[in-house]
């Protein structure tokens, strides 16, 4: 009977390690980008987003008005990459989405929330 106990303990340790490693892994469910609807046409919304990002210290690496896309990187700590998308929404509005990335991983939507607050104020003028 004593010979079986070490095998059971080993099995229990292995099962516990596998179970705990599942808890330590990152979630495979990615949060969608932070998004808002604005009562401004896509062109002006994209231009205002671009101006705001440059004023906030982002280095624009790509901007395409036809695609409604801006890629930028924050030039100061904590550095991260930002993707902005502006698409038509409704008759005269636009949908603006922002998503931050660091090390290939999506950042929580709260990271870009201050940018949305700033952009809403700018577009309301």
TrEMBL record:
<protein>
    <recommendedName>
        <fullName>Lipoprotein</fullName>
    </recommendedName>
</protein>
